[in-house]
Fold Extracellular solute-binding protein.
Amino acid sequence: MQSLSSRRIRHLTAVAAGVLSMSALAACGSSGPAGRGGGDGLEVWVYQDGSTVIQEEFVERFNESSDIDINLTQIPGENYQDRMRTAMGGSNAPDIFFNWGGGSISDFVEQDMLVDLTDIIAEEPGLNGAFIPSILEAGGIDGRIYGVPMRGVQPVILFYNQTLFEEAGVEPPVSWDDLMGLVDTFTERDITPAVLAGGDPWTELMWLEYLLDREGGAEVFARIRGGDSAAWGDPAVLAAAERVTELVDAGAFGNNYRSVRYTTDGASTFFAQGEAAMHLMGSWEYANQLAQQPEFTENDLAFAAFPAIEGGAGDPSAVVGNPTNYWSVHSDVEGERLDAAVEFLSLMASEEYAQALIDNGDVPTTANAEALLDSHSNPEFAHFQYDMVTGASDFTLSWDQALPASQSTPMMDNIEQLFGGDLSAQEFVDAMQDI
């Protein structure tokens, strides 16, 4: 557990400008998604958020020297996956697109819709050995690589308001009992213990992922991901679901969490305004807060690992989240256009790109990342995050990205019902075994 130092926040103007552009669908050189019918250029789709300013900058750099231009289209976050999946099934699929690796692209791999980048990366000097191996492999399918890392590492972190903690005379939790004690402490002080964007069920998933990991160890979900549906009946799944119910019933998330959204910055703003003491969220929350609430980020925002569960089989060093995001290439991209695509992907391995990620508050996935961390706007947070990832006994990919859509969609529905009280812990387990 560590807190943010009061270092001067740099590059804020550039980051804030990127965030402000998120209010509408934006494109660099285009009025909207054109797909593979856009001529000799390359159509690139990206999830629109506070980091998109970096992709804009490097697309512009690429276009200054390339005979084949890239047209960057930004898709608002809440619509990205649906639009991407719909487009990939038609004639307007992007040539290169942002994804989470693993299950998020497994259907495309099965249908031979993606370029296998394994040999290309091995043969390309700018890509071979450029990334942390475990991160590169995490985005693959069956030992083959279909994506190049293009953003920072993204473990899920327990952020907390250090000012509220100091005023209450408490410390970040290192055990389940500590966590439940904090729920009581902050409830008594009329402060929501942990903000939860229940309007976006993937934020609820983060809690269940860590609870299962701490209860049963990473191998339980590894069995599920490997196709063993019976693993949903593991006792650790029921125990994790019961702890979810315990948190909800104790008021850990307040009374109105079902109406709070993350994609509209509702949860982050609520947290930054001092209305909640904790926020379990991906590491990108730091960059979001840096852009949206710089004073809160500098003075109040702190961070810790998710607590251990006494008697649980899980290793407390294990993390969940998204190892990073990836660029994948459509299999229709060939010849000179594929050469240009590889040239663009190679920029993701450059020191300049890694430095841009750091300036945005992220921690790069490149092999040289550690040497650059002291230039982060908060080196303490950067080293905490880097050490968290490199020292983890396991890094479990977010379940909704690790599983194919045919499983992840009903799973998310069941998780929403579990947190909403419409399914008991046992009913949740039964429903998951039926998928």
User: Anything to note?
Assistant: The chain has two domains: 9-153+323-367, 155-321+398-433. Residues 405-420 form the longest helix (16 residues).
